[in-house]
Description:
Elements: H1 6-20, H2 23-39, H3 45-66, H4 76-95, H5 107-120, H6 122-128, H7 143-156, H8 164-183, H9 191-208
Helix pairs in contact: 2-3, 2-5, 3-4, 4-8, 5-7, 7-8, 7-9, 8-9
Amino acid sequence: MLPFTADILFSSLAQYNRALWPLPVLALLLSxxxxxxxxxxxxxxGSAIGVLLAAAWLWTGIGYHFLHFARLDLAAPIYGVxxxxxxxxxxxxxxxxxxxxxxxxxxxxxxxxxxxxVAVAWPLVDWLAGQRWQAGRVAGLAPAPTTxxxxxxxxxxxxxxxxxxxIIPLLWTLVAGATAWILSIPQDLALPVVGAGGFGLLLWKNxxxxxx
Length: 212
């Protein structure tokens, strides 16, 4: 049994977005920019996308879980630690030059692009599911769309994708899916499918690259 309802959760998200305004708009634009850079990469785009993705996980861990969601859920600090660790892993991968984001033709590229677009459109998904637009979750600021964006961008990464970058996102989709089931949040019920499917596709992608 969770210590909050879906209504309380989304009312809290609306307060969170209002407190951060206009940061949600900036986060949305940066997420769109990351997708554009995978379509038209330049010399520095891989590092820029990696840094943006790392910043998204660090912010969500500290700004959302530690400073906001902890008011509703005693488990929030645990989630916050996991998100911060994921952000640091992404920083490590960028520093080591292990990530080069560039959309490629084929199954992995198309699915990665689709997931990234869905992540950016998550506020619209929330609105279509009946939530107020003020409570829409934005990639880079809220866990669900940030996780979906991560799987999308990892599938767009050129060559082998370090699988350690997908473990925490996978685990979070399972946690979020269980929460969605308990609270009856229909738009989040697909998150475990995204996590398991995304992880499986990354395994397949690495094997196909001959570097798994």
